[in-house]
Amino acid sequence: MQVPPDRQASHRRLLDNIVSLYLLQGLNYVIPVAVLPYLVRVLGMETYGLIAFAQSFAQYFNILADYGFNFTATRFIAQNKDSPDAISRVFCCVYLIKALLMCLGMLLLFVIIVLIPRFRHDAIYFVAGFVAVFGSVLFPTWYFQGIEKMRYISVLTGVPKVLSAVLLFVFVHGPLDGLRAIAIQSMGVLVAGILGLWFSLRDFRIQFEWPSPLELRTTFSEGWHLFVSTAAITLYTNTNVFLVGMLAGNVQAGYFSAAEKIIRAMSGLIGPITQAIFPHINSLASRSTEGALAFISKSMVWMGGITIVPSLIMFVLAKPITLLCFGASAFASVGVVRWIAFLPFLIAISNVLGTQTMITFGLDRQFSRILIGAGVLNVAMAIPLIKLFAAQGAGASVLVTETAVTITMVFVLRSHGIHVVRLGRAEV
Predict the structure, then answer these.
(1) Which domain holds residue 359?
(2) Are residues 73 and 144 in the same domain?
(3) Which of 36, 102, 114, 224 is the 20 to 30 Å CA partner of 129?
């Protein structure tokens, strides 16, 4: 049977996006993995833990400023590719809202530093971490995803990361260079943001129009549920580093962060796939529900298969891999690695069920509720577990939470008549 030309073009574009992201965005994962062992060894676990704590705190403001637009704006642009005026309007709305939310974040950061001694003591680290928030606001990830030009994301974020890595090796040599280390990393994100905005304006001729109050209100309200969802995700991802730092100190935060970054780097291997297929699935769904679900089912099989093997390897070889990467000083990270070794597999499956399926088919509210519940569950478990078992307690909490998220998504989709997990084929 001959494949229609438009479908052939769509498949070629999808494959090109995935290949481009893997070839170029490989830098985004190879570089941090290469730099991380160096930083842990030269900074020491306490200084590295302080940096991880400050960066995890900055991530809250990043979530506030992103406001779910990486999903809602991407979805809108993917579904309105043939309307330059509509894309220009949403582009301006998103940037204005993100700028206002970033200003709100700056005000909150100032108040927290002034009022809380724990933050006031290392205020300069938290300010340096916030610079990365400014860069993230500037970079239009949602726009490049929506128009399916993924190579822009890869190149414009990869090149600054290479430069940042070089600067880290050149200028960071001991525990006293901690501030320099976090500043270099944040400046890399800022440079990427400036380049991303500049290229989006130069190459795609976005027309600036001051949005009307109604457009702002509509754009803001559409992002609410996914903002809540994204914020809830941080309650069982980013929050664990923060809680370990608050409850068990910088050293334990360093142990947990080092282990988590190894595992998150592995999860990042499917990042190019998930980035590329989200707008593709939305385009398919706008034409055929059955076609979109068939594609989702295939992606479930592939992403599960891609991630289960490295997860098993990390569980079995946690000790030699951790000691090889970070040295004997990070021995306490071995137990954490074992607790969270299967996160890449669980995250891959939940991404297909949640982001690729629930969001595509308008189940934003249900998706939000699942993640809110997961966030509450994680915090409720993590606080006592961290007090009892420090970094390993946080690892146990994350594993239980991610498992609960994945199982709940399956049941919610089934309750709406969507059967993604059905021996490689989906039904609605």
Answers:
(1) 224-428
(2) yes
(3) 224
SS3 102: helix
State the sign of the Cα–Cα–Cα–Cα dihedral 346, 349, 351, 353: negative
What are the Cα distances from residue 346, in Å, to 267, 276, 317, 402?
A: 9, 19, 19, 6
List Cβ neighbours of 415 (8 Å cut-off, separation of 6 or more).
none
If phi over 0 gives left and psi between -120 and 50 gives alpha, with beta otherwise, what is residue 288?
A: beta
Q: What is the pLDDT of residues 244-295, one digit of tens each?
A: 999 998 999 999 998 988 887 777 777 767 777 777 787 788 777 888 888 8
Q: What is each CA distance from 198 to 154, 195, 204, 206, 367, in whole angstroms?
A: 15, 5, 10, 11, 34
Segments in 341-418 forming alpha helices (H): 343-351, 364-389, 391-415
Alpha carbon 85 to chain centroid, angstroms:
29
On the CB side of 86, CA atoms within 13 Å amount to 13
Alpha carbon separation from 74 to 77, 137, 188, 382 (Å, rounded): 5, 15, 24, 33
Name 402's Cβ contacts closer than 8 Å, sequence gap at least 6.
236, 343, 346, 347, 350, 374
Enumerate the β-bridge partners of residue 427: 419
Q: Which residues contact 321 (CB under 8 A, 6 or more apart)?
A: 262, 314, 337
| Separation CA 196–CA 70 (nearest Å) | 15
Q: Is 422 left (phi over 0), alpha (psi -120 to 50) or beta?
A: beta
- Tokens for 288? 């055929």
How many domains would you assign to the chain? 2
Instruction: Tell me the pTM.
Output: 0.76
Residue 142 counted as domain residue = yes
Considering the domain boundaries, does residue 178 fall inside one? yes
What confidence tens digit (pLDDT) does each residue in 13-53 have?
666 656 655 555 555 566 766 788 899 989 999 999 999 99
